[in-house]
Amino acid sequence: MEMPLPDPAILAKRERIVARLAAVLPEDALITDPAETRAYECDALTAYRCLPMAVVLPRTTEEVAAVMRECHAEGVKVIPRGAGTSLAGGSLPTPDAVILGVARMNGVVETDYANRFIRVQAGRTNLSVTGAVEAEGFFYAPDPSSQLACAIAGNIGMNSGGAHCLKYGVTTNNLLGVTMVTMTGEVVQIGGPYMDAPGLDLLGVICGSEGQLGVVTEAWLRILPKPEGARPVLMGFTSNEVAGACVSDIIKGGLLPVAIEFMDRPCIEATEAFAKAGYPDCEALLIVEVEGSPAEIDEQLARIKAIAARHNPVAYREAETEDQAKRIWLGRKSAFGAMGQMGDYICLDGTIPVSELAFVLRRIGELTESYGLRVANVFHAGDGNMHPLIIFNANQPGDLEKAEALGADILKLCVEVGGCLTGEHGVGVEKRDLMPVQFSDTDMEAQLRVKDVFDPGWLLNPAKVFPLYVTASRRAA
Amino acid sequence: MRPGSEAELAELVRVANAPLALRGGGTRGIGAVGPAEVLETGGLAGITLYEPGALTLVVRAGTPLAEVESALAAEGQRLPFEPPDLRGLLGRGGESTIGGVVAANASGPRRVQAGACRDSLIGVRFVDGTGNVIRNGGRVMKNVTGIDLVKLMAGSHGTLGVITEVAFKLLPAPEMQATLALAGLDDGQAVAAMAAALGSPYDVTGAAHLPGRGTFLRLEGFETSVRYRARELARVLGRFGAVAEVDGAVWAELRDVAPFHGMPGDVWRLSVVPSDAPGLVARAGAEAALYDWGGGLVWLRMAPGVDLRARLGVFQGHATRVRGAGPGPAFPPEPAAVAALSAGLRAKFDPKGLFNPGVMVGA
């Protein structure tokens, strides 16, 4: 993975840039000591690391605006950072850039239950948004698996999803408005505590723009009343094909479960060895969760059971108690931890049309074998968002490169069958060089134009999302 | 002009050097387009891909909405966002197209639960102002690859490009619906009742108040579930008065703003914080008001020529004049910084200034 060479002119005036930042920030909001900036050298894509020139941790929108003005004046690149949980390297620094972390801006500005919104500072963690409203019976729907740690700012940057988006959508569907600071330090409000933002859908463009258009400092989020209850069912099948057909039939049957999770044999075996959830010995399993009152849940599960029966499940377990429900989710929720026990892993995030599930799993198996690696598949089957986990040994020279090559092949496969490179993690640096697989130069050029408008100097997170050759002339200008 | 293919359309735009008025069915355009030659998309029609098992539809932009809806109904599915038919309101004929629905981000009462058109839209193809064909999004529900131009095109009212193909995620059509009604509530009580309903776990898919006629809540789904939720919701609403169950005719009427059909005056659409709605309606001095989306959307019928924005002053939200001639622009003026971003995008996507001149900006 290549990053642009640092700009020597910026490195040469480091002292002046730091002095300008120090002049507009409280003392504890500026970090320049490499011993401390080390904590910001990478995000959750730990294979790539780089010390930034400086880290700023502002507490207010005004401080963010001041930082942006100074950086703009000096031509310094800014890399926005939420909680640093990006799996795609979305907040990977460069030596000539300032990391702008919003983690200290984590307050609740306003909650309004009658109008069903909450306004938060963008550094607030995803789960603590729900924490702020659950006493009143509400929740914030997008639930990325890092939700304990990840920040709303990063969720907006990456348009994060989660296990429950089949019913509730992803971040963009639950975002009402933002306060955003542009690269020139201007503070703009896009949308607000009402349902449709006026004018062009700038909010839709900002959400998922990977910190390339502005720094979001506050957000109005839609909150929803909590369902009366939820209950999962676990079913095991004799093949990936059969499990895939069952998913399709459930959807065609008019049911809309809140989650349909899929695990293949390698994943089942690994999680069993790790978490001992008591999963059945089978080729593929589904965890399907439905919501509602006890009677509604019974009705939906009866329909799901009838559909599943047509596919001769080797196991079918409905959770009858809270404890049983937890056990059904235990293995799924431990899947990533289990992989960590087996070795180093890369987590992919491509999406495919649900109808291509069985074919894609078979091809992944063939590709994996040809590389001599192991892959376990766990994913959100209802929406086709796959998370193949490629296991490798980071201490063995060449293994990472081999795993990355397999990952690229799998993502190309996702695009070939009509899907995409990333369903919820974002492009970052990780999938940057694969963009031409999915998009023509014209398609990418259209996206670059949006950045040209918001950030004409290409200072915001500029080496991400698009292949470097595509953005080279703009970054150099 | 009525190109028969995307390639023909792209070539036409590439060589164009005079303004073009983009038209699907011409049924829902808001505001006046300046002098321009009409460019119709009706020649780009037909469903390209429909996978009921994946809840996915890809369809060419000029396809009639009615054709899309009947194809989905045959599989027991539907567009989630309940697109309105504004022909009666605007006194127009013609046949609404799916591309026009997207260009207007047209969303009906179910928007309060299932999201707007832009929330169901997962892919788009369009021709920009230089004749380039651009693809964004795709046919899968979860896709964060690159900048989201899909949302940008939805609701851009033909000012950024000519939409040629769109992809949606769909929903199963429900087995049944039930509509609960409360009578005699004033606007403030009605909004409070709707907030109570929308804040309940009973998954309300419509919340409307038609002053003088009643306050309505809709539930949809499997029969036993709807029955159960109707009973429980009636209990929640008990403190607002007697709850009756009525037929669901009100939803299509509200979706199409039928109570204002054939009535004189300007028609405005307010997007507001629901609990602010009654106060704003009082300030507007409207001849009639309809509350949808729990009060988040208000349709106002005003005496012709009233400057509603001047009457309302500063508020959280915005007002669009859907019918009528002024004063002031039909679309809400934007703060300078936001207007500059929008103008910048238009200049990039339509550098020759071809598409729908004057729409969304100006008078």
Explain what you see.
The complex is a heterodimer of chains A (477) and B (363). Helix content of chain A is 37%, strand content 20%. Chain A is built from 18 helices and 18 strands. In chain A, β17 (374-380) and β18 (385-392) form a beta hairpin. Chain A has 477 residues and is of the alpha+beta class. Chain A has three domains: 1-226, Uridine Diphospho-n-acetylenolpyruvylglucosamine Reductase, domain 3 (2-Layer Sandwich), CATH 3.30.465; 230-335, Alpha-Beta Plaits (2-Layer Sandwich); 343-416, 2-Layer Sandwich (Alpha-Beta Plaits). Chain B is an alpha+beta fold and 363 residues long. The radius of gyration of chain B is 21 Å and the shape is globular. The mean pLDDT of chain B is 96. At the A-B interface, β9, α8, α9, α11 and α17 of A face β7, α7, β9, α8 and α9 of B.
Topology:
The complex is a heterodimer of chains A (477) and B (363).
Chain A: H1 8-12, H2 14-24, E1 30-31, H3 34-37, E2 54-56, H4 61-74, E3 77-81, E4 97-101, E5 108-112, E6 117-121, H5 126-133, E7 138-139, H6 152-158, H7 165-168, E8 175-181, E9 187-191, H8 202-206, E10 215-222, E11 224-225, E12 230-237, H9 240-252, E13 259-264, H10 265-275, E14 284-291, H11 294-309, E15 315-318, H12 322-333, H13 335-342, E16 344-347, H14 357-371, E17 374-380, E18 385-392, H15 399-416, H16 435-438, H17 441-454, H18 468-476
Helix pairs in contact in A: 2-4, 9-14, 10-13, 14-15
Chain B: H1 6-15, E1 20-23, E2 37-40, E3 47-51, E4 56-60, H2 65-73, E5 77-78, H3 87-90, H4 98-103, H5 111-114, H6 117-120, E6 121-127, E7 133-137, H7 149-153, E8 162-169, E9 171-172, E10 176-182, H8 187-198, E11 204-210, E12 214-221, H9 223-237, E13 243-246, H10 249-255, E14 266-272, H11 277-284, E15 288-292, E16 297-302, H12 308-312, E17 317-323, H13 336-349
